[in-house]
Amino acid sequence: MAKAMRMMAENLNLADAAVFVLDARAPASAFNRKLRDLVGDKPVLYVLNKGDLADSGADSLLAAMKKSGLSAVKIAANSSSAARTLTAAMEALVAEKRERMAQKGLVKPVRFFIAGVPNTGKSTVINLLCGGKKTVTGDKAGVTRAKQWVRCGAFELMDTPGTMPPSFENQTLALRLAYLGCVNDDILDIDDVALALLEELAQKYPQALFARYGIEQPMTPLEMLNAVCVRRGFVLRGNDFDYERGERTVIDDFRKGRLGKVCLDRLSDLKDAGLI
């Protein structure tokens, strides 16, 4: 990640503006303050992607961001209908730049720096703007390995490797990134992640746990995991629970929206993350 940050710092002077892709289910958690520091005075558009997986809580956060003076939009980049919304927001962001270029008689594409933590959908956003598959995409962290410029109509876009903050001062926000798949699963303690996810969902979306797994509150995180294993038949010989399968099921169901639309972040998280 440090190498990626250095590369971006070296190439930012080639871009006219930036697009930061965030996950609408936890936009504060997915915000990397270091990226905004790198961008400096360049205009920035904050894209709350995966909006089809987020509930009205994401709309409230979007409104708060706009009220604070940020340019922001919520989309689902896997839907072709989002292209017009995103393109219009990007054009509005660089309208003054285009006017200055026109006054000088310059005709060239405006360059956007596309960045965000892994698995927020940066490459899918680029593919949306280009009207086709132009970059490699995937459902795990770290698919984009190097920068690449992509020409998309009136824009040139620089896709970059997913970047993470150098440290996690706020462990709650860090855990949410783990829930979303923005951190490589191979370096995580899957037990802690799954139990923490169940605990947070029980606080904010207990009805989702009941509908999916028959979990009734109050329960401890471990009791909820036991209920998942019973509901799914993850029981080993001797009536021991197959906790690993249960944990991965909960995490996978959450990531793929099988637990319904959610938004884990709150207004206080936007402030804690330094986003507003």
Strand order of the largest sheet: 3-2-1-4-6-5
Assign the structural class, choosing from mainly alpha, mainly beta, alpha/beta, alpha+beta, or little secondary structure: alpha/beta
- Average pLDDT, rounded to a whole number, is 90
Beta-strand share of residues? 5-15%
- Give the overall shape, derived from the CA principal axes: elongated
The main pleated sheet reads as: 6 strands, mixed
Element-level helix/strand string: HEHEHEHHEHEEHHHHHH
Q: Count up the helices.
A: 12
**Over all CA atoms, what is the radius of gyration?**
20 Å
Alpha-carbon distance between the two ends: 24 Å
Low-confidence stretches: 136-145
For the secondary structure, the number of strands is 6
Helix content: 40-55%
Structural account:
The chain is 45% helix and 12% strand. With 276 residues, it is of the alpha/beta class. Strands 3-2-1-4-6-5 form a 6-stranded mixed sheet, sandwiched between helices. Helix 7 crosses helix 8 (190-204). The radius of gyration is 20 Å and the shape is elongated.
